[in-house]
Every structure is written in C-alpha cells, then in structure tokens.
DNA sequence: CGTCAAATGTTAGTTTTCTGTCATTGGGAG
DNA sequence: CTCCCAATGACAGAAAACTAACATTTGACG
C-alpha cells in the first residue's frame, strides 16, 4: 500500500465509505453499531457475510442491509460487488496490510481499542461530569503528572490552555510548589492530576494538599489506582494493561482529549475568538 | 503476549494452503486448474464464490468443492469459515459499551478507533520497518517534537530509554543544538521527530540537518505532512482529523507505543535484566 | 399518559450457493 | 476393440444468504 492518505482513484466503494463516515452521527443506535463495524473492519469485511456481521455487531441481519441501503448501496450484494470492483481495479487487497498481522497483535490492538471505547463510555458518568464541571468553572487550573506521563500532562496543560484561561503546568519537583504559597483564586481553583502505576508518591500528597487548600481535584489514572477515590469524586479510570513492553497511554490520552473538548464547549466561552487570538499571537512569535 | 511477536499462530488456513502446494503435482487436470487459481489468487479469494471460481478456472462448480475436499476441507463452506476465522477479529466487543453513547460522540469515537487501527495496519509497511530498524540499530537516538506534541515526544524519549540505551530528548530551542556540535556516534545515530500540523518550521530544518550529518531520521506525523517524505523513507503517517476541538493524538501515541515495543523486542537485548536494573535504580532514587 | 413515527426484530419467501447422485467422458490395460 | 476406473459434469435437492412484509418496541412530543 502506498502512503495511504494521498490519492485513490475514487472507486464507488471509497465514495460509499466517506458517506458512511459523514452520516454516522445521524444514524440510529443499532445501525451505528453496524457502521462502526464496517469502518473498523474494512479490510476483513470481504470475508464476512451479512449474517456474520450482524452477529458480531450484535444486531439483526436485516439491519445490516438497511444500513447499507441508507447510504445508497443496494444491499450486501452490491456492496460485495463494489469491493470486488475496487480490487480488480487497484489490484491490491484491502486486506493486505493487516492480513499479515500476527494474531497476538490483533489481540493487542483489540485491547487498545477497547480501552479507548471504555473511556468514551464514561462520558456520562457522574465522575466525568464532575471533572468537566471543575475544569470548566474553576478560575484557575493546575495540571501535573510525573514520570512516564509527565509529557502527557504538559501537553494536556498546553491544550487545555487553548480551551480556557489560567491553566498552568505544575512541576512539584522543580518549582517547590511556590505557586501554592498564596491561597487559591477567588473563583475556585482546580488541580488535574495524571498518575499511573507505579504511582508517584507526590501525586497523592499533592492531591490531599490541594483539597486542604480548598481546591477541586480531578484525577486521570489507570484501573488500579488506590488513592484517588478517597480524595475526590472526579476520578477517571482508564484501562492501561497491555501486552506491550510498557503500559498503554491510549486510554489516558483519550480521556484528556475528551476533557479538553468538554471544557472548550462549556458555556460562556467564545472558542472561535479565542482561537483567532491565539493564532495571531503565535504568528507574531513566529513559531510556525 | 510474551516478548516474541514472531509467533504467527499457524491458522488452519495456512496449513491447508501448504498441503495444496505440496499435493499440486498429483492432481488431475481440472482440479489442478482450480488449485492453481486458489494459490495465485489467495488474497482476492474472499470476493469469490464457488461458482465464480469455477467459471474463472474454466471448470464445473462441483470440481472446486471436490478439490477442497481432497485436501481435507469440507467444502467451500468450511473454507470460507477458515478464512473468516483467520482474518476477522476486531469489533465484537466494542459494540456493547458504545451503545449508550450520544451519536455525535459515537462518530467521534469511531474516527479515533479507526485512527488507531490504521496505525496498527502499518506495522508491516516498509516505512514502519525502516523506522524499527533505525531505532533498533543506531548507537544513539534523539527524540524531538514541539508545541502540542512536545510532551508526547518527551514521554516517548523516556519510554524509549527504557527499551534501549542512549536515548535523549532534543530540545532545539533550549539547548541550541549543542548536542550536535560533535559528529554522530560511530555506531550510527538516529533522530525521531514527532510533528503535526501546524508544522514547526524547526522540524524540517532539524531533519535535513540530521541527514546531512549522516543520521537516520524517523518521522511520526499526521496525514498532511508535506516535508517528511523528501527527507527519509521512515515516515509514519497517522490520521489525526477529528471532530474535537483539537487534533487527535491517539494515532500518534499508538505509533510511538508500537515503535517502542518493536525496539524493545529487537534482537540482542535482554529486556528483563534491563527492567530489573531500572527498577533498582528507581528504588534508590525514591521516586515512587 | 397517550399517540405517533421511527427503529428494530420476526417470520416467511426468494434467490444464490453449495453438495449429493448419477450419467458421461476419456485414457490406459488386456 | 473392449473393459474399467478415475475424472468430470449435469441436474436436482438442501442449505444458506439475502430481502420483503409485517409485528413489536422504543422514544420523542404534545
């Protein structure tokens, strides 16, 4: 497969896929499952039958056909024809790339995907909504994280700072916490901690200290965290166990993205103006 | 998953194929045609049906079935089942949790999941393997990244340093590149760049400079990157477009994880010992 | 709380694919 | 030339995939 994104002669199948991508949001629940299955398994879909897809997606067979129809494809039959046609034209199998994936990598990938979807599933939990509220309403936000997630914490601080004012990365070690000599801002203060196994001792201390000073605390962590729930209700646990050499960051990353997004969309902020201002600033500094 | 990811689980289908290859010579004329068609078109066979194969091979439909039977496969039906089993894995599990999501999140999530699976699909591409090789074989590795991915680059450097020796984060701005005053290490030097839109001007410059000094370059970037392909063959493009407030980091994060994992598993490293040493060091410093 | 429309599933029918039975072919041994 | 047996195909029946029509459920809205 060539470099992927650039250019495909627009076969009807590609056209169809993009229609599905766009239309996904407007889909009813069950059909959305089917669409998701299609998009995630495009390269192995040719091995499937309508029925088998239905089973794996957990819907009735006919729903598969209906979904296809909705996007202007006359059922499984025509869909397969499109696939075949695309193959005969480009001469390359959609399956080629991932076909050779050893099965343990497949498992690995499935685990990662599951981790991400687990995080998304938490959007409506009280914990997530508490986190959203703290981050949205506080006058100032501190972000911190150590060891293998320090970078993630820094990025999160940077990105969050685009979404709302007064965000600072807090480096306990280096600044000796001079930031907290003064009492929290009047409008409320919030600390966002990212911590994973092996938990940095500082995190818990920092969190408790924050609470004592009257700050809200949000914790993004892995599934084993022992201390966070005692300190705050805004704890987001994400799966991190993997077969890889190190723990996975995907779940954590997804969680931060969602929180940032939620904060950006919080009421009373004009994001467009904010982004414009930011771009103007960035231009002047000439970093691009 | 243990350290070796060389374990291509021997699926029944592979077994079947090798039996066919061996038995080819002893086959009657018509069946030989069929067998040949199978072997030559293994990757498009999923689009075919017993009938269509028969037509293209110029034999009767039943002969196809007979040929399969001869090699211990109970007909087209079982053959397809074997193929399906071999190739389709992902998705069943995701369907359940995601059911309750509001549909706009659903779309968002699917996009993210697809980004990750796209990255995994690239494991076997030449570009990925080149990256793997550079990172595994170089005597020293520098990692860099700016703006919203600087943190990711730093984390990557830290994690990569657990997998192999002599990894440093390179901060062009701050160190004024003093690291590169001296010529590259004798065993080879490698620069890993993470860069996304809006591309930092420094990245391209840095990459070209590295090449001039005889260093290998690996680039992890988004789908729009314009400069990387001119500089090196080890470019990993990951989808980053999302409906969120900012671009997605998931694809990039997945890519770094895979590269780190691959490096850790590169031949000639005793990862267990390395991890033990590291834990001992960490204990003494008392960071946990 | 009821109504209505969209969504989804169920059942049954149609088409396609697959396979079992039997007839035909074709080449080699006597 | 005839007989024999493997090879092959034709046909029909079985099974599966697919679809259409109807029934049930769900959820929004008044």
TrEMBL record, chains A, B:
<dbReference type="InterPro" id="IPR046348">
    <property type="entry name" value="SIS_dom_sf"/>
</dbReference>
<dbReference type="InterPro" id="IPR009057">
    <property type="entry name" value="Homeodomain-like_sf"/>
</dbReference>
<dbReference type="GO" id="GO:0003700">
    <property type="term" value="F:DNA-binding transcription factor activity"/>
</dbReference>
<dbReference type="GO" id="GO:0097367">
    <property type="term" value="F:carbohydrate derivative binding"/>
</dbReference>
<dbReference type="GO" id="GO:1901135">
    <property type="term" value="P:carbohydrate derivative metabolic process"/>
</dbReference>
<dbReference type="GO" id="GO:0003677">
    <property type="term" value="F:DNA binding"/>
</dbReference>
<dbReference type="InterPro" id="IPR047640">
    <property type="entry name" value="RpiR-like"/>
</dbReference>
<dbReference type="InterPro" id="IPR000281">
    <property type="entry name" value="HTH_RpiR"/>
</dbReference>
<dbReference type="Pfam" id="PF01418">
    <property type="entry name" value="HTH_6"/>
</dbReference>
<feature type="domain" description="HTH rpiR-type">
    <location>
        <begin position="14"/>
        <end position="90"/>
    </location>
</feature>
<protein>
    <submittedName>
        <fullName>Transcriptional regulator, RpiR family</fullName>
    </submittedName>
</protein>
<dbReference type="InterPro" id="IPR036388">
    <property type="entry name" value="WH-like_DNA-bd_sf"/>
</dbReference>
């Amino acid at each position: 497969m060539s470099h992927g994104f650039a250019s495909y002669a627009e076969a009807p199948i590609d056209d169809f896929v993009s229609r599905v991508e766009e239309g996904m949001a407007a889909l009813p629940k069950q059909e959305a499952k089917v669409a998701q299955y299609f998009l995630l398994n495009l390269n192995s879909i040719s091995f499937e039958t309508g029925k088998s897809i239905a089973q794996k997606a957990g819907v009735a067979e006919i729903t598969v056909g209906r979904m296809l129809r909705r996007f202007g494809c006359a059922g499984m039959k025509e869909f397969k024809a499109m696939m075949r046609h695309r193959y005969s034209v480009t001469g390359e199998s959609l399956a080629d790339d991932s076909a050779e994936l050893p099965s343990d990598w497949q498992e690995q990938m499935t685990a990662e995907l599951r981790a991400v979807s687990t995080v998304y599933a938490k959007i409506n939990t009280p914990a997530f909504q508490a986190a959203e509220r703290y981050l949205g309403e506080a006058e100032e936000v501190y972000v911190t994280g150590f060891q293998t997630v320090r970078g993630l914490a820094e990025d999160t601080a940077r990105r969050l700072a685009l979404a709302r004012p007064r965000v600072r990365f807090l480096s306990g070690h280096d600044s000796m916490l001079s930031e907290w000599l003064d009492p929290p801002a009047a409008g409320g203060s919030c600390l966002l901690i990212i911590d994973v196994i092996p938990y940095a001792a500082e995190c818990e201390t920092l969190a408790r200290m924050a609470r004592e000073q009257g700050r809200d605390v949000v914790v993004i962590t892995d599934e084993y965290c022992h201390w966070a729930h005692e300190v705050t209700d805004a704890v987001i646990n994400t799966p991190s166990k993997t077969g890889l050499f190190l723990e996975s960051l995907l779940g954590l990353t997804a969680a931060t993205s969602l929180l940032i997004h939620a904060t950006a969309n919080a009421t009373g902020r004009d994001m467009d103006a904010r982004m414009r201002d930011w771009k103007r600033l960035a231009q002047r500094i000439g970093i691009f």
